[in-house]
Amino acid sequence: MSRMPLPPSPPPSLSSKAPHPALLPQEDAADARLQGPALQPRPLRHQEVAGWCGPGGAAGGGDPGSQGEECGARQQVWPSQDRQRWGDGPQGGTPTDLMPACSSDSVELEDPLENLGVKLVRQAGARTNDIAGDGCTTSIILAQGLIAEGMKVLAAGMNPVQIARGIGRTADALVSELKLMSREIEDHEIAHVAAVSAGNDYAVGNMISDAFKRVGREGMVRIENGRSTVNSLEVVEGMQFERGYLSPFFVTNHANMSAEYTDCKILLVDKIISDPRELLRVCFSAVKEDFPLLIIAEDVEEEALSTLTRNKLSGMIKVAAIKAPSFGEQKTQCLEDIAIITGGTVVRDDMGYTLEEAGKEFLGSASKVIVKKDSTLIVTDGSTLHAVEKRVAQIKGQVENSKERYQKKILGERIARLSGAIAIIQVGAQTVIELKDKKLRIEDALNATMAAIEEGVVVGGGCSLLRLSQKIDMIKESLDNLEQKIGADIFKHALSYPSTLIANNAGMSGKFVIEKVLANDNASYGYNAANGCYEDLMASGILDPSKVVRCCIEHSAVVAKSFLTSDVVIVEAQESKPIRVRPPMPPRNLIPPMPASVSGIRV
């Protein structure tokens, strides 16, 4: 939201499609006001932050720590006058969904201005979850803390722009300090990171740790719905690369926008497919024998692509098309690698093969294929394992003979792609609600583990944020003026919010716990809410991925800056809805008697 001056008189309604009436000729301005939904600028009163951010933050406030509680959520609007009853959930609502992470996603307020505030705070968690895969609740709590502390200084007449600038510069400095605090994760610590993110569920942590041991840190781990009531782990051979479908019309699973096929055949073409007649022979085979077909080519031009999509939509053929990974000579080598792992043959003009003559004997096989917008996963049955090992040994020889660093990197990526197995965690549960809850927890644990592998780990339990708050006095020396330093102090107070909530959820005094933790010089010393002890959290396996903590700091600061520097918002004007009143029941003595044939009573 940007700063906008409030007009001296009530403005006319604006159109979401037409330009602002002030920018139109006089004769067109009146017409523009009649188009689209009515939007009204409203002055932003920062004192309304309790109505804005309270429900969004409070809904997630019960989550942090091992003693945090789940939140039952139901999609229902909260009336503005009931917003103080955050702990009870929506009026009349029943828990229909367990939300272990971003409970605020289900919070909706009746007042559009207040609901906009909830959405603003929710952005901090959503951005963190999109990038790091975890840390949604912590981001919301930090954003709520920054806004609450910022309101106090704005009420004293401070410059919001300088306050926001101080918050932003402090966030950048804290990220630099965080990188110095983090270290690479050890193999035995993967289970701890996954378990902490899954709510101290070490069964999940050990399963994810076992998955990465079997496929390696660069391997692929997927989560699927299981067919039993218990979780299970399966490892299959496969390959993944960053190329997605050429048209969304190939999608078969609209829930996650992917094209998924089992027992699929794969056509590999090292050229651009422009004429749809070139595909007639292989497509007729796919229709006749009823097998799915994945086409991987340098490109598929419009005429050929439209022919494929039209026949797919009509149900004639199960097909999907993607571009080959990489470019030039590397593209050719990647196609050969895919041919090795699937048992197919690349159609290449320089080898004397033509696409018109390519039949079923050229096709590779895959037990499962999943094509998304930006990635493709090919799972094989392991029948080509010997050929793959031979190909990997050949590429390793090229690595030893190569002197260029870039070339070694490319060859290393090909080795990882060829030899990378895929671990599949199948989630089992008794009910749909339990399945969704367990799947969300396992996804959070997996994302946290991948983030820890990528950027390392720091001490968890909110302790790393407390230690960062001790660095702010040093950061303030580099800021330009008093108001920017006040912005740094705001961040210092907000960094204690997660630790306070963790302690409160465990039945302890947050203020007392923070004072005792900061009094100890050991950077890993903190409060373990699981057992109620003060100990070395790093040694106890209480770890947080550095990437998650970094995203929490960055995104909460961005949201707080947007809020504190906003004076006017534009919301859609609500139309009054007529009250529907049920007609009264007729008097009892006016109800006609029931026919004897119906009542069974003789009259």
UniProtKB/TrEMBL annotation:
Tell me the protein family, please: Belongs to the chaperonin (HSP60) family.
User: Which protein is depicted?
Assistant: Uncharacterized protein
Q: Where is the composition biased (Gly residues)?
A: 53-65
Q: Alphabetically list the UniProt keywords.
A: ATP-binding, Chaperone, Nucleotide-binding
Q: Where is the composition biased (Pro residues)?
A: 1-13
**UniProt feature, compositional bias: Low complexity:** 14-25
Q: Which domain of life is it from?
A: Eukaryota
Matching PANTHER family: 60 KDA HEAT SHOCK PROTEIN, MITOCHONDRIAL (PTHR45633)
SUPFAM superfamilies on file:
GroEL apical domain-like, GroEL equatorial domain-like, GroEL-intermediate domain like
Q: Which one GO biological process term can you cite for this protein?
A: protein refolding
Q: Which organism is it from?
A: Triticum turgidum subsp. durum (Durum wheat)
The segment annotated Disordered runs over 1-95
Q: Name one Pfam family in it.
A: Cpn60_TCP1
One annotated GO molecular function: ATP-dependent protein folding chaperone
